Amino acid sequence: MENSIKDIGEQGLLKILQQFCPPEIIGDDAAILEVKNGHSLVVTTDVLVDGVHFSDLTTSPEDVGWRCVAANLSDIAAMGAKPLGITVGLGLPPDTSLDWVIQLYEGMTYCLKQYDTVIVGGDICRSSVISVSITALGSVLPNRIISRFLAKPGDAIVITGCHGLSRAGLELLLHPAKGKNLEPNSRNILIQAHQRPKPRLDILDSLWNLTDYSIAGMDSSDGLADAVLQICRCSQVGAKINQNAIPLPYALRNFVSDEQALDYALYGGEDFELVLCLPLEIAEAFVETIGQNAAIIGHITAEKEVRINDRLLYLTEGYQHFSH
Amino acid sequence: MENSIKDIGEQGLLKILQQFCPPEIIGDDAAILEVKNGHSLVVTTDVLVDGVHFSDLTTSPEDVGWRCVAANLSDIAAMGAKPLGITVGLGLPPDTSLDWVIQLYEGMTYCLKQYDTVIVGGDICRSSVISVSITALGSVLPNRIISRFLAKPGDAIVITGCHGLSRAGLELLLHPAKGKNLEPNSRNILIQAHQRPKPRLDILDSLWNLTDYSIAGMDSSDGLADAVLQICRCSQVGAKINQNAIPLPYALRNFVSDEQALDYALYGGEDFELVLCLPLEIAEAFVETIGQNAAIIGHITAEKEVRINDRLLYLTEGYQHFSH
């Protein structure tokens, strides 16, 4: 019979989970980390709950682990920072299978490893629902902080990659029949985008090779439309988006209509790309450096409205917790 | 009718809760903090769940907030560090009353204020049970880190205050009839100890006035016996505890037998005092400085067994999540 965590108890589970942490960090009241002199500390927290953010229907425990970590590392990337480590707070029903928890940690540490970082602490606790609270820590030189508050009229708006794929992947997982005519390669791309999104920590060095200028931006975790609107609201500016400049890759158009593809790109969320506002010349060099999926999709304006072609860009109700 | 959080939605709730954070810290993907040059960063996480760690029976929402913060700040104190801030991840059922959440935050910020620190970030999420995940951040000079691994034979074992009061307060709240003969002042002391425990950040300056020596210790959040046993296990030493040196204050003896009082002191937990191992002269000066409730209760030995008077000190099953 499969072990559940109540069979091994809290201490037994802790011992197993500590194997996923660097040994030198374990065992005291708190973890000790070094922040390089002159660097600022960056901190972000996410709570993910079974049935709200993930489900056995669409995501294996490894995928849940990967996604929880990726979402937090994306917030670290969105500040221009490099990760120092994460803490993991788990709420677990006593009948949770031990395998599920171990696979969750395997997914988390696999994602962390890609970005050269680790679990530095945590806590586990009995609960009636599985919840995963992650706090990610990072460090950044103060002049390299990426901020939502710094967009200026004339800045080009850059996205580091495609949008809408994760939302399409979710749709495909929830309603497999919808994908019956989909090419296998398109299917893989969409499902990977949903299950294994990649925080864009990889593009920061390219950015800093081009500029030490203060940069405006954020990640597109709640969708591309949300990111542009939030940057404009925080910076008290507006934007003009060129609809045709938003890349809608073949995998997406192979699955849904162009209209639906655009809707997914604008409002789907969880693509974890960065949306950056840069002087045009730097934007062009940056897009060329990081490759074909990056694009300039418009520019910042002094008028405080956000337009896509001739329409006002609005935020759909989107995902509001508690209200449904 | 009282508002529940589903009436105001996630954005509405976030706006209300942001009033409890310093305004300069809000609104970006992550918070930025400064760690002073030469200081190490200290990080600790706790998850607390309704019905497991707190209950409306024994703790008001303000008390829950205070206790969650106090437990985390105690871990910061146990590392010898000063707090930089906390992040708060909340899981909330949609029918949670708005007042409950606001009072939780009032309790948290009230406790934080006593220790000159703040909420620097957080997340809220729909869940089927109330959970509070707190990550506390602190900073410490590397030579002032208090560690479980540094106890040496000959060190005096110091406690910074009384033990057992919080456990007695909980008993009184769960079974009010047991306190029918208790003096009002004793009742207040016990209930305050449970509902408003004080992390001992206040004693660190006194400690450092006496020594820059590396210090062994931890907090007594899981009970005094657990703290002594853990320090001894981590440092590969033993200890001799003098039972009569453990202070059992009048409020405790007014409520239960001396035998029960000692049991609460050793195993009750959640008193959030510090247990420190110091050279005898420094220990004596330290106890004199911080006052009457502090005491030297024994000393560290080379033999790897922990004795209280002539008995071996053992750990009761204590509080094991998942196993009941």
From TrEMBL, chains A, B:
What would be one Pfam family of this protein?
AIRS_C
The chemistry this enzyme catalyses reads: thiamine phosphate + ATP = thiamine diphosphate + ADP
Q: Which UniProt keywords apply?
A: ATP-binding, Kinase, Magnesium, Metal-binding, Nucleotide-binding, Thiamine biosynthesis, Transferase
| Annotated residues for binding of Mg(2+) 1 | 45-46, 123
Its Enzyme Commission number(s) read: 2.7.4.16
Q: Where does Mg(2+) 5 bind?
A: 222
Described function: Catalyzes the ATP-dependent phosphorylation of thiamine-monophosphate (TMP) to form thiamine-pyrophosphate (TPP), the active form of vitamin B1.
**Other remarks on this protein:** Reaction mechanism of ThiL seems to utilize a direct, inline transfer of the gamma-phosphate of ATP to TMP rather than a phosphorylated enzyme intermediate.
Name the HAMAP family for this protein: TMP_kinase
Protein name per UniProt = Thiamine-monophosphate kinase
